[in-house]
Amino acid sequence: MLESIEQTTSYIKHRIGDFEPEVGIILGTGLGGLVSEIEVEKQLMYSNIPDFPISTLEFHAGKLIFGTLAGKKVVAMQGRLHYYEGYTMQQITFPVRVMKMLGIKTLCVSNASGALNPEFRKGDLMVIEDHINLQPLNPLTGRNESELGPRFPDMSEPYKAPLIKKALKIAADNNITCHKGVYVAVTGPNLETKAEYRYLRIIGGDAVGMSTVPEVIVANHMGLPVFAISVLTDEGFPENLHPVSLEEILAVAHEAEPKMTLILKKLIAGL
């Protein structure tokens, strides 16, 4: 794996020249519009990057974007990878390792998720303060590469408290409804049953989704500070559960995206 990371990083550096990103961004389902805020210098299709997994979802662009956002040099993944697409956890998290090797100092992650907390509503935002990992595999299983990180990385603060505090203040200052909560990662791709939503809430979840946690584990393994934010695109309340379509999820994400973009831009500006 280390050799693949080095080869991919070398290829990208050759393509982007002396551009050195400070911040890495992973854009989730329906949230690729942040790219329009970036002063783009280079774009690389995942399919053209050696060993880089290709997003199989039609609503994920599959581009690596290099440019300037809020005065900071960034690299943004316009389209992420999921375990349910058939990739290994190592493949899903490979881009995070490459971004770290490219020089990023902070990782910002976004996703679309379902609300579990009855005080939350679809269209709200939630800054992730902690997570519960219910996905079946861990990206750190197998031989540990000491050059990448320790065998047993600490996860006492997977999402950096100072970044959470700043983001919540930005939201409050701009009259944006933004909660703080625990994200539960499941496999997907199906949504949950009533009993599953009830269980996820009982164990402490405020929102549920199918991504993010593998990337966050790997970022922590490499000593990379993480900020993550969810757009709550549907409501998993067992007592009042309704069928949800992908079209509805994308529509809610699209409507909430400007609020998330504002928070991310201002947060990145202050890094």
UniProtKB/TrEMBL annotation:
Tell me the pathway: Purine metabolism; purine nucleoside salvage
Query: What GO biological process, any one, is recorded here?
Result: nucleoside metabolic process
List the EC numbers from the record. 2.4.2.1
Q: Which EC main class describes this enzyme?
A: transferase
GO cellular component terms attached to this protein's record: cytoplasm
- Which Pfam families does the annotation name? PNP_UDP_1
Q: What is this protein called?
A: Purine nucleoside phosphorylase
Q: Give the organism, scientific name.
A: Mucilaginibacter ginsenosidivorans
